[in-house]
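Hello,

Our lab assistant flagged a job as stuck in the queue for most of the afternoon. It eventually completed. Since we weren't sure the result was trustworthy after the delay, we are filing this so someone can double-check. Below is the sequence as submitted and the structure that was eventually returned. Let us know if re-running is recommended.
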Amino acid sequence: MLFLLRLVAAIVLIVTVAIQSKQAFARAREFSDVQETGNRSITLEELGYLEDETIQGVTASRSFGFHWPASWAVLPGNTVTVQFSHSPMLAEYSSMALDFNFVRIGSVPLTPETADHGQVLLEIPAKLIQPGYNSLTLEFYMGIHTNYCEDAENPGVWVTIHNSSSFNLMYDPGISDLDLSRFPYPFLDSTEFLVNKINLVMPAKPNLAELDALTRISAKLGQLNSSNKMEIEVISEDQAQEQERTDPGHLVYIGRSDHLDVLDSPELPFVKHGSNSRTLTTLDGRQIDPNLGVLWIDEVPGSADKARLIVTGKTDEALFLAGRALANESAYPLLNGQLAIIKSITSPTDTAQPLEPKMVLEKLGYEDITTHGSYQQSVNYVVNLSREWQVLTEASFDLHFAHSELLQSKNSLLTLSVNNKLVGNTRLDENNAADAWLTFRIPARLFKIGANELSLVMNPQLQSDSEDPNQCNDDHYYDAWVTVYSDSRLTLPTGPTVRKLDLGNYPFGFMENADLSGTEFVVPASPNLDTAQALAWISSGLGRYTTGEESLPAVIAGGDPVTVAQEAPFQILLGEPSQNISIYQLNDILPLSFIEGSNKPQNPELIPEVMPASQVSSIGYIEAAMTLEGNSRLVVTGNDAQGFKWAARALYDPELMPLLEGDLAILGSQDAIYADTILQAQDTRVETTSAAPALPEEGDYSNPSARWIVWLAGAIFLTTIVIISGTLITSTSKRKK
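-- returned structure --
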């Protein structure tokens, strides 16, 4: 009985909370499922520091960092374990000090007992941990002689920091203060500890307006999450109900109000229900104009660590506005609370800019950093790249920095390394002391998929005092300093140096502007959830390489010859050929064309030239083509729905993208991709108007292009035998005579 009374009380409270919106939202969390305290251990290697680091010098420092998730509440009990080795000859005054966010948390002597894999475990006070970037700085004071100034250039003074060093972190998982002005929080959290999992919930048969909103939002999420891991899946509302408690992902509902059953949920305070209708209202019950977009954010019922976002509107035009609001960063500060009504969206004032991917340190979660002291110091940054930059051009790092003016320029250096490979250095002198910019040219081959470490090593030396032989003992902490500003940026190569369309140039060969304007997705006339999933994968993948306030891709329906008009600069055609007949309109320029009315290729003999013979039933195709006017076309298709989804996911998967090359890629499974150049390798095409012949089995030469080669080889062989035999007979006859 007591249980029933408590249950009724909880239900009454939840209903009251929903009506009162934001204030009651905080109270509702008290009745959510209790989340277990989280504990996460992560090594420097897992954070992207892939090698042990050895440093030399009587005084030196190294910094390492991580990003604390905004959705984690800090609990006591956090620790750091530093594993290190050092020269066994160090004097007894040698020591290591540890600072967390520039506050000293401990120190340890460097003794013979710690020379080989020594270890120190220290607690990190909870009050020092902040959302976003946190840094651990290790400072070393080392020497062999009594006066360590004698060891200033002694290579025997060294210490190695092992990347098996680790942080052990205590936290309370959950989300707080859900406010649309904080978007993309909590859907995206810039951290190494989490994979951002987002479920996009769509109507079973989405229309163009719903697909357009999905595409723009996905592209913006990809842009805002460019350096972190993200999983984005499209599911139905039935699947969303099943996964509310079991799936770790947040939910984003996208659809017109008459297409979303979630709006029937009794806890939503902005929906008024009639006998056969839903009316969107303000929180005080006033009806919302049918032409205005609506956004709502709250917790997934019963899940304190998952958010639910609803993007809707009464009409297609209203939904379009709602989608644009989330695709436009300049709109976020104007959103307030849990409910937002979108009347209009101001287009960006700047015109579309050519694509030039830049990764600004501040956007990656780093802040301005100032190092103090006249000794060797370093600042390390980890940049995650989702694909390999296999191009002929180079990347560049534009460094914004400043330093004290009292430095000895001859010996004061700043050095940049990428993945432990030296890139270049510069002297620190009076010419670059104040607000300086320096560009480092970086060969693209130094980068790799995944974590890349950029390391700045500074060695600021003060002017020497000839009357003070022990000057190196002076601290000079505030006299020598170097500041690295967070608007420093890494600019990545944008694509090929010549206009030659190739899948290896994806995505830059298929997009031009930094906001995706000019890029059109051509979808089947009757799209489904597979179409929506392909759009979400590909647009979020493209978003990784974009900049700008608003994401502006377009979605259009295939079928009309005008759809693939020659003047459209960049088009990506999606779906099975039999469902998106616009693919047939490109048959003349595709490396692998299709028989109209089917998903069968006109030139099936090309498939075993690219992919080894197999018994797979589903096949995915990715094709690159260029119109006579020089406009790019990318076709993402398959012989069935499964093959089509394999092809779409390959353009999102960072492990598969580097395998793309040539003008045709074929997928025989989700992770098996084969690519080759077709059109540039052959001068003629095999024209077929009837049903395509069956694919040849291994060792079967029944197809025409293989059979004539066999006959020719046989004829040449027989002719050679006849000539040799005739020559031998003639020679023998002459000898007998």
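-- support follow-up --
The delay was a queue issue, not a problem with the job. The result is valid. The chain has five domains: 42-172, 175-342, 358-465+475-493, 503-692, 701-732. The two ends are 126 Å apart (CA to CA).
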